[in-house]
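Hi everyone, sorry if this is the wrong subforum. Our group has a chain we'd like a structural model of before ordering constructs, and none of us has done structure prediction before. Sequence below.
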Amino acid sequence: MSRQPIYLDHAASTPLRAEAGEAMLRVMSECFGNPSSVHRWGRAGRAALERARERFAAAIGAEPAEVVFTRGGTEADNLALLGAARLVPGCAVACSAVEHKAVLTTAHALAGEGHALHVLPVDGEGIVRLDAVSAALTERPAIISVMWANNEVGAVQPVEQVGALCRQAGVAFHSDAVQAFGKLEVRVDRTPVDLLSFSGHKFGGPRGVGALYVRHRTWLAPLIHGGGQERGLRAGTEDVAGAVAFALAAEMAEAERDWEAARLGGLRDRLEAGLRARVPELAVNAAGAPRLPHVCSVSVPGVEGGLLLAALDVEGIGVSAGSACSSGALGVSHVLTAMGVSPGSGPAVRFSLGRTTTAEEVERVLEAFPALVGQLREMAAA
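Answer:
Right subforum, don't worry. Here is the predicted structure as tokens:
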């Protein structure tokens, strides 16, 4: 009897929660009216949409009017950076060197439009340098973006300190919280942040639905023009069913966050300890930083990264080389490069655990992974 495959790429995407899927189907059939229409079908759609907005706002400590629904985390990041910078032509923008490509590429696009760009360095554990943040603030940029937690190595950034520095300088602070929400406490009523990005499929919601938190009196230029939906910041008929499923999944993720984070942290620690003991020269990236409880990034010298991922897939183990949002690219990680990790350390493999991960699956990985590495090293040597 064949073994069940093991999915350890939850940082890329999570399984849709059954409750969220059921809610989505129900709303699609019952609230099909355009929420901008004034008749009863439209009003039913509007009521469902606003209730979803209220529920998600409560989960992050925001006011409902501060939540803008988007088509995902990438759009939320783009709206935050482009929307803030384009209000002040030619102004500077700043972001950390380890941001998700949704932020970094957007920042470089702004540089192409004539905005000065400051890429803030990080230390060897992937943590942004606060002195670099302070230096960038002296130029009064339109926005500074530092992610809440890194998607490749799991390093948690000092968002409270960065936010405090930005608030003192009167500069808008954006943080990509896509990986952090559901694993860490993400509350806008306790953290000095002006803009926060979220993506539903990272915590059991549907793909293609996200949100941008926009603190009251934070001004943005819209990216999509049309009928003025979402406070004029995101035109287009709203995805009511997606928003309802997104909000429900967010509520569930927040309700189980503490105990699930503790469970995943224990499994992650067991995985790392076993890999260190069984794979010579393996290194855990960002091991000295505060990290997300479910992410483990390791560098494995002596193997070819593509072959290792393919061998793991054949074995029924799904992992990633890092971010899964770069068209499957297996090139050098910009995150590890910014951290100063030598290319000689070998390719990186990211294990990211989730609510379906079990202790038995971790033990199976600890059996299979060292053996595969050994085989590939022998092939490389030959």
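For your construct planning: The radius of gyration is 21 Å. The first helix runs from residue 18 to 30.
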